[in-house]
Design goal:
The complex is a heterodimer of chains A (713) and B (351). Chain A is an alpha+beta fold and 713 residues long. Chain A folds into four domains: 1-25 and 614-713, Immunoglobulin-like, CATH 2.60.40; 26-308 and 449-510, no CATH class; 322-435; 527-609, Sandwich (Immunoglobulin-like). Chain A contains twelve helices and 36 strands. In chain A, the strands form nine sheets. In chain A, strands 1, 30, 31, 33, 34 and 35 form a six-stranded antiparallel beta sheet that branches. In chain A, helix 7 (298-378) runs antiparallel to helix 8. The longest helix of chain A is centred in the middle third of the chain and has 81 residues, at 298-378. With 351 residues, chain B is mainly α. Chain B has helices spanning 6-18, 40-49, 53-100, 107-125, 131-152, 158-170, 173-184, 191-217, 229-238, 245-270, 284-301, 310-315, 322-332, 342-350; strands spanning 2-3, 36-37. Classes of the chains: A alpha+beta (713), B mainly alpha (351). The interface between A and B is large, with 43 and 46 residues.
């Protein structure tokens, strides 16, 4: 079968505002290979070029070797608080910079190993991460209880340059307490669990994804609607239900595909269409830790799901181990039988070889004896002839001795040989049982990432049916999970750059620092969408004076400070402790092309300021099958997408010229205000006869546009 | 003497001997050669050397001393390996009793285990039915039984008892001297005695012929009285292994395995809760493998010096050295998973 190929002649133009589009990394996600300790993905353009995943996470360090990690904890001594989620009464903020990289040694090992797999293979560079989420998990035991895995925070992990990710999160009072106590134990079990996403293509598969959106939206997991964030695990569970009920169908016509991968592709695509990545972040404690309508909070749900998923995985792993052990046992029996058989065979062979050796010696002796006798025959001197005959007799006697020794060896060989048939039958039976015992399975890593990413249902509902033919290179996202155990940080417990406790009820608490973090943006978003963000802070003191502070965040200092900014104000005759915590802040977003969004002053007493951009990332899939393009006689396609950023219209334009048997699968990203999904697109088809067909400008909220459905408007 | 492909040897040798070839060829000497035979040149030389059978008799008679020394060293090496196995076994046994809070076996049981364990070890080392092997086995078994019966009388502590057994085993001189005399001058009144005498005569004859070959070639081997590779090969076929670390280690391992196996089997037999399928009669290979793995663990982790304390054993419960793990766990790979040690279970999962 001739496989469809990806549209490689994709031309991307940025016009009008100068905005560029993002393009999927041109790697084949489902043809990954393991070389040394690294995971490599081949290029879709050149099968000999590979990109590696920088999946070895470790805390970044300052020049002096100290970790780029800080844990700021707020306490209120001698004050009991029922308001657990009221940050003003306690809590904490954790910030960490994590390097996602590999060592030169690991890279060298991978290169060597790759040569074994593909003699012409070359490692070109790392696969860039598109985005990421994280969870901070602590295995913590409350007094008198077993250790439990507790999710202390979840959030986005902004991707910086040089394969670094900065994570920040606010902790509830309880979360801060758990984390603080965890760090004070001798062997703390605290880890960041990352779920980093990479874009790429799935290789063509003879499979079709079909979904009925109307039925999917009816699932109980989605009943809470757009107001409530849902975890990725909840979405997957709902999709599993819908697949069993037929609302989601993954049909494969070939026999060589792994259904699990097909299903994952289907789920990824449906998730992209139905949900936005939740704006709730590690710093948005209100959304994470609070609950409404007696529903569990995000952190509670995350902890419960984590515990349940891990229990499930542990149970499954136990079952896998039991199955592996059964296979192992059969192999052990076979090995035992074979080893016995080989031992006996070796004994037989050794005895026979020995017998043959000794028989040869006997023959040599006889030959010498013959020689003496021959000489005796020719000897004239009778005394000398008698001497020679006696010598011949001596050698013949030696030959006889050798014969007897050889007989002994033959007897040994025969004795052992008698045991061989039975041993061979036993070994064959054991071997057959071992061969039919099945394949050994890998135990699964304990899940954590699957539950970390949280989503919010799009306000725009997808309707009707949805179909994607996977028989072409299809754009997809792969989530890669890796963990970083923070390990023993006890030596930094007295280092105020790392661990710092602030008693906000103390008179010594004279200056308040407010960490500021941008949420949900990567360093690449600066320059593509955002020029800079300015945050103003104003503090009205009891005496009527006002203190202010300001920070301007752009691409350079976002990277340099690892998304870790601070504003501060001092105590100036402020006696009311509660009022001292109150302040105001204002955010000005300056977008690429000059558009600005000025968010009005916000009253707050929170210990950190999370900055959620007023514009959210949106995406639309462009799909066409090779057959569809061929049937419609399409030669090339010009696609334009118009959207509003501030008060300016932005345009993204794709020029697509698919070749024979090539399909189209692209994802275009753009930005829209938080509550808006509407965009405008225009398709111009150039047909094989050079005629042109245009849709004109069409308003849409659809998640997928089929480019092989030619419709003139 | 040359190392020659055996299948080509005989016709070639006969042919060349028949033609009385006298051409000089460069002899190849290979100390490890166990498949050596007379070359045409040497055969011709032997024929021309032994003009006088009296001279041949003299040389054969003189061959006894070096051949006897070689056999004596071999048997001594076997006894030393066995003694070392008893010493290691003593430490292992003490450790097992202490660690598992196991009921101590009676000294009589221990004596039986040591006796039968060493005997089984000898059976594995000398598995053949030949008269030389049988003679050595019989001698060694008698010697061990004698030592056990002498030692049992006055020692109460099992560990001390075992150490004394080992010490007595190491003191081999008198026993061996008498045995060697009997081996080279057996009574001809029995069939076995005649056969043994004949085989020893055959070995001496082989020694003389090889020496003459060495002398003819001006081979360096002629400068030492030790039997050359051909005679050593013949002795090996008869069950006399060359003395040295290889033989010592082999005896040490096989004997220690059997001693450990003896304790395991005794414990199972004593235990009323042991499942009926899990006994040494029903699953001999299984229990031997467990014992082999244990012996391997002891020997690979204390290769240079003998095991002297139970604390050493405590340290080897969880091996960390990858090569040691590989060796021990490879042996355990013949065991059902549940029977493997925790470190080898983890190793199996990882490999």
């Amino acid at each position: 079968m001739m496989r469809a190929r990806v549209t490689l002649l994709l031309l991307i133009f940025a016009v009008g505002t100068g905005v560029s589009t993002s393009e999927a990394q041109e790697i084949i996600l489902d043809r990954q290979v393991r070389a040394g300790e690294l995971t490599l993905f081949p290029s879709v353009r050149d099968p000999n070029k590979y990109y590696y995943v920088a999946d070895k996470a470790r805390l970044a360090t300052h020049d002096n070797g100290d970790p780029q990690f800080s844990f700021l904890r707020y306490i209120q001594a001698n004050v009991s608080s029922d308001a657990e989620n009221d940050e003003g009464s306690g809590g904490g903020i954790v910030h960490a910079l994590v390097e996602l990289g590999v060592t030169d040694e690991q890279l060298d090992d991978a290169r060597n190993d790759l040569r074994r797999l593909n003699g012409s293979g070359q490692i070109i560079g790392p696969v860039p991460f598109k985005s990421g989420t994280f969870a901070l998990i602590s295995a913590f035991a409350e007094a008198g209880s077993e250790f439990t895995d507790q999710v202390l925070g979840v959030g986005n992990a902004p991707v910086l340059e040089n394969e670094k990710a900065a994570v920040s999160l606010s902790l509830t009072e309880q979360g801060a307490k758990v984390l603080w106590e965890s760090f004070n134990t001798a062997t703390p079990d605290i880890s960041f669990s990352f779920n980093m996403e990479i874009d790429g293509y799935r290789a063509p598969k003879r499979a079709l994804i079909e979904a009925n959106f109307d039925r999917i939206y009816e699932h109980q997991n989605f009943a809470a609607g757009i107001a409530t964030p849902v975890l990725q695990a909840e979405i997957s569970a709902a999709f599993d239900d819908m697949r069993s009920e037929g609302a989601i169908k993954v049909t494969q016509t070939g026999e060589d595909e792994k259904m699990e991968a097909l299903v994952q592709t289907a789920y990824n695509r449906l998730t992209e269409l139905m949900f936005d990545k939740s704006e709730s972040s590690g710093m948005d404690l209100g959304a994470l830790a609070s609950s409404a309508n007696n529903t569990p909070s995000m952190l509670d749900k995350a902890s419960t799901l984590l515990a349940s998923n891990r229990a499930e995985t542990r149970t499954e792993n136990d079952a896998i181990r039991a199955r592996n052990e059964a296979i192992d046992n059969r192999e052990a029996t076979a090995a035992q039988s074979n080893s016995q058989l080989e031992e006996t065979r070796a004994q037989v062979e050794a005895a026979e070889a020995g017998a043959e050796d000794i028989e040869n010696r006997a023959e040599s002796m006889r030959a010498i004896a013959d020689r003496y006798e021959s000489q005796a025959e020719q000897e004239q001197d009778t005394a000398r002839a008698a001497e020679l005959r006696q010598l011949a007799t001596r050698f013949r006697e030696q030959a006889g001795r050798y014969d007897n020794m050889a007989v002994e060896r033959h007897r040994d060989a025969n004795t052992r040989r008698g045991e061989l048939d039975e041993q061979a039958a036993t070994a064959a039976q054991a071997e057959s049982l071992a061969e039919n015992a099945g394949e050994r399975e890998e135990v699964q890593d304990l899940p954590s990432l699957a539950i970390v990413a949280s989503y919010r249902m799009k306000r725009v509902r997808q309707r009707g049916s949805f179909t994607v033919d996977l028989n072409k290179y299809t754009i997809d996202t792969l989530a890669l999970r890796f963990d970083e155990n923070i390990g023993d940080m006890t030596r930094y417990l007295n280092d105020e750059e790392v661990f710092y406790t602030v008693d906000i009820t103390s008179n010594a608490f004279s200056q308040r620092e407010l960490p500021v973090y941008i949420d949900g943006l990567n360093v690449q978003d600066f320059g593509q969408y955002i020029n800079f963000v300015t945050v103003l802070m104003s503090k009205q003191h009891e005496n009527g004076n006002t203190s202010s502070d300001e920070v301007r965040i752009d691409r350079n200092n976002f990277q340099e400070s690892a998304n870790n900014f601070k504003l501060s104000y001092r105590k100036v005759n402020d006696t009311d402790q509660d009022k001292f915590l109150d302040y105001q802040y204002r955010v000005l977003w300056n977008f690429f092309g000059g558009a600005e969004v000025d968010v009005d002053w916000v009253d707050s007493s929170r210990s950190g300021i999370p900055l959620n951009p007023p514009y959210q990332r949106r995406s639309v899939f462009l799909e066409a099958t090779p057959q569809g393009l061929s049937d419609a006689s399409i030669k090339s396609i010009e696609f334009k997408l118009y959207y509003q950023l501030g008060d300016r219209e932005q345009v993204k334009r794709l020029s697509l010229r698919p070749g024979n048997n090539e399909g189209i699968s692209q994802q275009l990203e753009f930005m829209l205000p938080e509550s808006e999904y509407e965009y405008v697109y225009e398709i111009d088809w150039r047909m094989q006869d050079n005629s042109r067909v245009s849709t004109g400008r069409i308003e849409s909220e659809d998640g997928t546009i089929y480019l092989d459905e030619v419709t003139e408007v | 003497m040359q190392c020659i492909n055996k299948t080509l040897l005989l016709p070639a040798a006969l042919l060349i001997i028949a033609l009385k070839a006298t051409s000089q060829t460069t002899p190849e000497t290979d100390p490890d050669c166990s498949q050596c035979v007379f070359s045409d040149e040497e055969a011709a030389h032997i024929v021309s050397t032994f003009d006088d059978q009296v001279e041949l008799s003299r040389l054969i008679s003189e061959a006894e001393a070096p051949v006897r020394a070689y056999v004596e060293d071999s048997v001594r090496s076997t006894e030393m390996g066995s003694a070392r196995s008893v010493r290691d076994f003593a430490v292992w046994y003490s450790y097992r009793v202490a660690e598992r809070n196991a009921a101590e076996l009676t000294r009589q049981q221990l004596g039986t285990i040591v006796g039968s364990g060493l005997s089984l070890g000898l059976d594995l080392l000398l598995p053949g039915a030949g008269v030389v092997e049988r003679t050595i086995r019989t001698y060694a078994n008698r010697a061990y039984q004698g030592i056990l019966s002498q030692t049992a009388a006055n020692v109460d502590d099992p560990a001390e008892y075992l150490q004394q057994v080992a010490t007595r085993m190491e003191d081999t001189n008198d026993r061996l001297t008498n045995f060697m005399h009997d081996m080279f001058h057996p009574s001809t009144s029995t069939e076995d005695g005649q056969a043994l005498g004949e085989q020893m005569e055959g070995v001496k004859f082989s020694y003389v012929l090889e020496r003459e070959g060495q002398r003819a070639r001006n081979d360096a081997g002629y400068r030492t009285p030790e039997p050359g590779p051909e005679t050593r090969g013949l002795l090996d076929q008869l069950g006399v292994r060359r003395a040295g670390s290889e033989n010592f280690d082999r005896v040490h391992f096989e004997s220690l395995t059997q001693l450990i196996r003896g304790v395991l089997c005794a414990e199972i037999n004593e235990s009323s809760t042991a499942p009926s399928v899990s006994n040494c009669e029903g699953e001999p290979r299984h229990w031997s493998t467990i014992a082999r793995a244990t012996a391997m663990r002891i020997i690979t982790t204390t290769p240079a010096e003998q095991l002297v304390s139970t604390s050493q054993l405590r340290n080897m419960v969880e091996l960390t050295d990858p090569e040691q793990l590989r060796q021990v766990c490879n042996v355990q790979s013949e065991l059902m998973f549940m029977w493997r040690s925790p470190d080898c279970q983890a190793w199996s999962r990882a490999n």
